[in-house]
Structures are given as C-alpha cells and as structure tokens.
C-alpha cells in the first residue's frame, strides 16, 4: 500500500470527523449519522495502516481520533453499585473459574513442593544447621517460641491490616509480573513455598508439626488459595505473551490484562477475609480444632462461590472482562 496516496485519499474524511467531534453535542441527526459512518471508516483505515504500512505518526493520530469518536458514539457511563454487585456475583468468580486450569495445578504442584522442602529439612539435621544456629532453632520451635508468638506479637487489628497489605501486594505482583514470561511469578511462588517448607521442616523435627499446622491452617488455606489464583492468572497472562491464540497479541494481552486487574480487586477482598482470620482467629484461645474448622469453612465457602456462581456466570459467557461498551475500540485486523 502506498501510504502517501492513502493519506491523501482519506485525509478529508479524517478532518471532517475531527470537525464533527469538535462540535460536541451540537449535531443534527444527519451529522450524527455521518459521524458514526466516519468513525467506522476511520477505524478500518487505522487497521489497514497498522497491518500494511505502520507509520507511528499517522497511527497515533488515527488512534486518538478513533478513541475520541468512539467515546462520542457509545457515550460514557458512570460506575454504580449495580456494577459492583455484578462484579462480585458474576465477573470475579467467573474469571477465577475460567482460570482454574492454571491455578489448580499451580496449587497442587506448589503444595507438593512445600511438602518436599519440609521433608528434606525435617530429615536432614545438617540442612537445619545451615539455616540457623541450634539455640536459634530452639527459640523458633519451642513452646511459646517465635513461630507461636508471631501471630500475637502485635494488636490484632494492626496485625490483620499488615498481613492483608503484604499478601495483597504479593498477589498483585504475581498478577502484574506474569507478563514477563512467567519467570517472576515462579520465583515468588518458590519463595512462598520455601518459607512454608522451612516452617514445616523445623517444627516437624522438633516434634511440633501439629502445633505449626494448627497455627497455619486457619488462615493459610484461604490465603494460599488466593496466592495460587493470583499466580495461576499471572502465568496465564505470561503464556498469552508467548501464545496469544487466534487474536492479535495486543488484543489477547488487553483482554487478559483487564481480567487480571479485576482479579486483583477481588483477591484483595479475599485476602482481607484471610487477614481477619489470621489477626483474630489464629492467635485466639479457641481450641485448635475450632480454629482449623473456621479455616476450612472459609476455604469451602470460597470454592463454592467460585465453582457455583463463577461456573454459572462462565457458562453464560462471562469472561471476567469489563463490558464491551467500556473497552477500547478493537478495530478489525486486515488479512
């Protein structure tokens, strides 16, 4: 395609569209129809230039023009409580459900990794000696030691807020860094599972694994599930960079990225619940069985939420993406 000839041929249409957009709401019915037609033609022009003769200056100009025209044609809409309810009842659980083929294997493999690390440390005294000195290990694992007092070292409210902030940050990092070909997500997962495995190994070597699990499971089931969901979504985003499927890489990344942003908001709420359990239930005087039961109930409630509400929404076509009317214009790709 001769770009100069193409620009000369269609420049008048682009300038006319720009003129109509500048008039705002002062358009007659015929002019409004003309604006819609020019918007559709300009979007097609942008697609042709992008695929056949990409020019950064012209592409930037037409992209801005198409975006302005789309805003006028589709109108703007303010978010409402109805949007929040739909997100929590359909969008978020649907996104988690649709990504289950990523986060469920991630959860299984990560849990196995933590168990293997725990077994390795627990059965090899030389590895324990490399982690810390014997008196430090005893201080960590003794009754009333650091592993136990950690959960009651601060007031419950501030501790829950701190835990929530740290976990939400870790989940957000998994979601965002997934675009870098999955490597940072795998590293974050490994660090989390290594920390868990070290605790399992050291407490089991001291004969206090039951105490450790009684402290970790009440909040850890829901917390780790949220981390696994974030990691699985991040890995899915990273794989989209490698294999975008039938869509263009930019369109596929845009869709997965928008779903990941929504996932970050939803997981922040899930981790808030986990933080409350960790701040108020884990260090409480409740019997171990009662604390673990609370953790199991919270975990089952989340899984039911995902597989029932999310499954129903996903089968109805919800992808966890924002409404089509709120997305940036996607122009057709020329063959």
Describe the structure in your own words.
This protein is an all-alpha fold. Helix content is 79%, strand content 0%. It has 13 helices and no strands. It is elongated and about 80 Å long.
Helix percentage: over 70%
Task: Return residue spans where pLDDT drops below 50 for at least 5 consecutive residues.
Answer: 324-335
| β-sheet strand percentage | under 5%
Oligomeric description of these chains = single chain
Number of H- or I-type helical stretches = 13
How many angstroms does the end-to-end distance come to? 13 Å
- In angstroms, what is the radius of gyration? 26 Å
What form results from the Cα inertia axes?
A: elongated
Number of strands: 0
- What is the H/E string? HHHHHHHHHHHHH
Global structural class? mainly alpha
In this structure, how is the largest beta sheet organized? none
Mean pLDDT: 85
């Amino acid at each position: 395609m001769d770009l100069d000839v193409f620009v000369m041929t269609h420049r008048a249409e682009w300038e006319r569209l720009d003129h109509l957009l500048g008039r705002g709401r002062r358009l007659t019915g015929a002019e409004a129809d003309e604006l819609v037609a020019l918007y559709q033609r300009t979007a097609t022009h942008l697609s042709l230039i992008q695929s056949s003769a990409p020019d950064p200056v012209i592409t930037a100009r037409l992209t801005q023009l198409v975006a302005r025209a789309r805003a006028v044609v589709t109108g703007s809409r303010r978010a409402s409580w109805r949007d929040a309810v739909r997100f929590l009842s359909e969008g978020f659980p649907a996104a988690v459900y649709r990504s289950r083929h990523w986060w469920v294997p991630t959860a299984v493999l990560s849990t196995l990794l933590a168990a293997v690390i725990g077994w390795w440390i627990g059965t090899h005294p030389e590895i324990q000696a490399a982690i810390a000195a014997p008196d430090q290990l005893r201080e960590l694992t003794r009754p009333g030691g650091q592993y136990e007092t950690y959960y009651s070292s601060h007031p419950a409210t501030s501790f829950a807020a701190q835990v929530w902030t740290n976990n939400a940050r870790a989940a957000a990092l998994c979601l965002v860094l997934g675009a870098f070909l999955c490597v940072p997500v795998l590293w974050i997962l490994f660090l989390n599972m290594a920390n868990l495995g070290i605790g399992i190994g050291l407490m089991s070597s001291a004969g206090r694994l039951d105490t450790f699990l009684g402290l970790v499971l009440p909040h850890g089931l829901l917390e780790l599930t949220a981390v696994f969901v974030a990691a699985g979504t991040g890995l899915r985003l990273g794989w989209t960079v490698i294999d975008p499927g039938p869509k263009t890489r930019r369109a596929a990344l845009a869709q997965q990225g928008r779903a990941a942003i929504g996932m970050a908001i939803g997981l922040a709420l899930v981790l808030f619940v986990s933080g409350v359990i960790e701040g108020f239930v884990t260090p409480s005087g409740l019997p171990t069985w009662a604390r673990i039961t609370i953790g199991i109930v919270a975990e089952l409630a989340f899984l039911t939420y995902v597989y029932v509400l999310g499954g129903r929404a996903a089968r109805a076509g919800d992808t966890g993406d924002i409404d089509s009317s709120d997305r940036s214009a996607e122009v057709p790709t020329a063959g």
